[in-house]
Amino acid sequence: MSDDTVVVWDPSLLAYDLGDHPLDPVRVELTIALARELGILERAGVRLLPPTPADDDLLTRVHDPRYLDAVRIAPRDPLFAGFGLGTSDNPVFDGMHESSALVTGASVIAAEAVWRGTARRAVNVAGGLHHAMPARAAGFCVYNDPAVAIARLLDLGAERIAYVDVDVHHGDGVQQIFWDDPRVLTVSLHETPLALFPGTGFPDETGGPNAAGTAVNIALPPGVEDAGWQRAFHAVVPSVLRAFRPQLLFTQCGADAHRVDPLADLHLSVDGQRATYLALRALADELCDGRWVATGGGGYALVEVVPRAWTHLLAVATGAPLEPATLTPPAWRELAMARRPGFDVPLRMTDDVDPGYEPWQPTGEPSAVDRAIAATRKAVFPLLGLDPHDPRD
Question: Which of 31, 121, 137, 391 could serve as 310's disulfide partner, Cβ 3.0–4.6 Å?
Answer without folding.
Answer: 31
